[in-house]
Amino acid sequence: MYCIKCGVELADSEQRCPLCGTRVYHPDLERPDADPLFPPDPPVSRYKVTQAGGLFITTSIFLLGMLMPLICDISLNGGVSWSGIVIGAVLLAYVFAVLPFWFKSPNPVVFVPVDLAACAVFLLYLDLYFDGGWFMTFAFPTVGCACVISTAVVALCRYVRRGYLYIFGGAFILSGGAILLTEALLNYTFGLHSRLVWSLYPCAAAAVIGLWLIIVAISPRLRTALQKKFFV
Ligand SMILES: [Zn+2]
After folding, report:
1. Can you give the pTM of this predicted structure?
2. Measured in angstroms, how far is the CA atom of residue 45 from the centroid of ligand 1?
3. Alpha carbon of 13 to ligand 1 centroid (Å)
């Protein structure tokens, strides 16, 4: 007799396939009462890493990633110079990738602004380190815009839970505006052009996509037609 699922050869006494666990049943065969040929598989004990243990290991790796450049920098230059940037970047990665796991159910409405605030702080550090003078006129308003738009989208999606087409339509249109603002600020801060050059195209594309989403949201007939066409 053979297993109907995996094809392994079975002894007549077998109640279940020892390999895949499929029940053995043949209507015409009498099955003698005997012990199965193989003992049941012992449960495989897996070494489990708890979340706290994982966090401890990850945090240690990140700390090491900050300490090593700091030590190198101090021993080579007698102070903190370039290692500040490395440490800032590692900290930023930590805030993005690891910090949410400190919480039981991380809330994106909190972590999106926290991540962007961390970005802003890192950019401020870079600005001060390189004496760039672009933080207040370029980085801060750009990151601020991104923060407001993304936090609004995440909060609406989480708490309103409907009207996604309106939410994303609005977000596209606002992002188009943010792209215009970004170029204007770039031009102002770095004295590039006296008028907008490249940002009009992505802005127009974003506005068209946003308007299209809102039109689809407004018109139930169009929505049904699209759903039928694309099986969504
Ligand atoms: Zn089987």
Report:
1. 0.72
2. 23
3. 14
CA atoms within 13 A on the CB side of 96: 10
Type of residue at 67: L
User: d(Cα 92, Cα 126) in Å, to the nearest integer?
Assistant: 13
Sequence-distant (6+) residues with CB within 8 A of 49 are 57
For residue 23, the SS3 value is strand
Written as six digits, the tokens of 195 are: 């008028």
Q: How far does the centroid of ligand 1 lie from the alpha carbon of residue 24, in Å?
A: 9
Taking the centre of ligand 1 as the mean of its atom positions, its distance from the CA of residue 22, in whole angstroms, is: 6
Instruction: Give me the residues paired with residue 23 across strands.
Output: 16
Rounded to the nearest whole angstrom, what is the distance from the C-alpha of residue 48 to the centroid of ligand 1?
29
Q: What is the mean pLDDT of the chain?
A: 90
pLDDT digits (tens, 9 = 90+) for 39-92: 666 666 667 778 888 899 999 999 999 999 999 999 999 888 899 999 999 999
Question: Is residue 170 predicted with pLDDT exceeding 80?
Answer: yes
Residue 201 contacts residue 180 (beta carbons within 8 Å): no
Q: How many residues are present in the chain? A: 232
Ligand 1 centre and the CA of 37: distance in Å?
14
pLDDT confidence of residue 55: 92
Give the residue from 115, 114, 127, 116 showing the smallest Cα distance to 85. 127
pLDDT of 130 over the 70 cut: yes
